[in-house]
Write a structure and sequence with these properties.
Mean pLDDT: 82
Number of helices: 2
Number of strands: 8
Structural class: mainly beta
Helix content: under 10%
Number of domains: 1
CATH architecture: Sandwich
Low-confidence stretches: 108-123
Oligomer: single chain
Order of helices and strands: EEEEEEEEHH
CATH topology: Jelly Rolls
CATH class: Mainly Beta
Strand order of the largest sheet: 1-8-3-6
Shape: elongated
Length: 133
């Protein structure tokens, strides 16, 4: 699923979340952050706001865009685990964020107990990617 949002002076944040009762694993990957039409030549800092292992809110800057020197940044599918908030910490934008949302359905619990799987079958399962730090 494709994801896109725009941060501006009037809409400084966007939160991506999934239903807490959903039993699937969700991965959100950011591809590109770029300034769009109407952006001023000023520093536009985009932060990702999430929670650490102690459930404390943390904000990490992922992009500092300026029209005259760096209007676009490729984040090479920077993987995040929802819920996550994107915030325009400085500047007035508009900044467009694009990426994708992948849903990995968990298998039934009996799947793990199935001893009939060969090693070859196990290798074909997609790995769960850890969040980059």
């Amino acid at each position: 699923l494709l994801l896109g949002c725009e941060l501006t002076a009037s809409t400084k944040s966007y939160t991506f979340q999934v239903d807490e009762e959903d039993d699937s694993d969700h991965i959100l990957a950011l591809s590109v952050v770029c300034l769009t039409d109407g952006a001023k030549d000023e520093c536009n800092v985009v932060e990702v706001v999430g929670r650490n292992h102690e459930n404390q809110e943390i904000a990490v800057p992922v992009a500092n865009l300026k029209l005259s020197c760096q209007p676009l940044l490729s984040l090479d599918n920077f993987k995040l685990q929802p819920p996550v908030t994107f915030r325009l910490a400085a500047g007035s934008g508009p900044v467009h964020l694009s990426g994708w949302h992948k849903i990995m359905h968990r298998e039934d619990a009996s799947f793990e107990e199935d001893d009939d799987l060969s090693e070859e079958d196990e290798e074909e399962l997609p790995p769960i990617m850890p969040a980059k730090k």
